[in-house]
Design a protein that fits this description.
- The complex is a heterodimer of chains A (about 80) and B (about 170).
- Chain A is of the alpha+beta class.
- Chain A has a domain of about 55 residues.
- Chain A contains 2 helices and 5 strands.
- In chain A, strands 2-1-5-3-4 form a 5-stranded mixed sheet, with no helix packed on it.
- In chain A, a hairpin with a 2-residue loop joins β3 and β4.
- Chain B has 4 helices and 8 strands, in the order βαββαβββαββα.
- In chain B, the strands form 2 sheets. A 4-stranded mixed sheet of chain B has the order 1-4-6-2, with helices on both faces. A 4-stranded antiparallel sheet of chain B has the order 5-3-7-8, with no helix packed on it.
- In chain B, a hairpin with a 2-residue loop joins β7 and β8.
- Chain B starts with 6 loop residues before the first strand and ends with a helix.
- The chains are: A alpha+beta (about 80), B alpha+beta (about 170).
- Chains A and B meet through loops of A and α3 and β7 of B.
């Protein structure tokens, strides 16, 4: 399954934006977080910091949510403000 | 969802004077207009490391950032009964003295215009989806809101509480 992954703020220092083929077991956001934690050094440590957010198709998600083909999932570190 | 034309996020330099001229053109029902322009400083926001800023890099999440600002701007419109507003925000790489943000508000009376502009800036400084990095020579440092920025936005909640009690 293909998904579009986006990384903002400190996450952008760790991973690059792009279309990604997810492993077959990554079918929800919880599995995605585990997979990204294994794939990118520093991701898991940053994810648990205050103010981080996951946004699925422009909607903030705080609980496990299914991932569908072509979904856009963004990882936001603590906001800086403008 | 179409993006509002009064929330502009751009990687191109902008002129606050030109934006204000466009904003006020044909506006005859407002007795008060307030503008605020934020400028990139050459001094670091924190004392960590070198303190001379050579560039400011700002990220946003296209579509999502505009949507979040739009939700908050709607609150401001209802709360202060303003006639019109404009938000222009730079992203990308800027250098000291570049305008980074401009807010313009038009209202029937001055108090609503002042307060709405202040309210919108407090939101933009703390809660709008932007990420900024100061470049200080060979170093670069991610910036988070200052404690004072959070205190500033909390004032508006306190005002709500006071109103609830009366």
């Amino acid at each position: 399954m293909m998904a579009r992954l986006l990384f903002f703020g400190k996450f952008s220092d760790i991973a690059e934006n792009g279309e990604v083929t997810l492993p077959s077991h990554v079918t929800d956001t919880e599995a995605l977080l585990l997979w990204l934690g294994q794939a990118h050094d520093g991701f898991a440590a940053l994810w648990v910091k205050p103010g981080t957010m996951m946004v699925l198709n422009h909607v903030t998600v705080s609980e496990r949510a299914p991932i569908k083909p072509s979904d856009e999932i963004a990882f936001l570190s603590a906001l800086s403000g403008g | 969802m179409s993006l509002p034309d009064n929330i502009i996020i751009t990687d191109a330099p902008f002129s606050p004077e030109d934006e204000f001229a466009r904003f006020r053109a044909g506006l005859t029902n407002a007795g008060a207009m307030v503008t605020f322009t934020g400028i990139v400083r050459d001094r670091a926001a924190s004392t960590e490391g070198a303190n001379t800023v050579t560039a400011l890099q700002l990220q946003h999440y296209p579509g999502f950032t505009e949507k979040q600002i739009s939700i908050f701007a709607q609150l401001a419109t209802e709360r202060f009964e303003i006639n019109k507003f404009l938000i222009v925000h730079r992203v990308g790489t800027m250098t000291p003295s570049d305008p980074v943000v401009m807010v313009a508000v038009a209202a029937v009376h001055r108090r609503a215009a002042f307060e709405a502009a202040d309210f919108l800036m407090d939101y933009l400084k703390t809660s709008a989806p932007f990420w900024k990095k100061e470049v200080r020579g060979t170093q670069s440092v991610w910036i988070e809101p200052r404690t004072a920025d959070y205190t500033d936005i909390a004032r508006w909640d306190a005002q709500n509480d006071t109103r609830d009690e009366t």
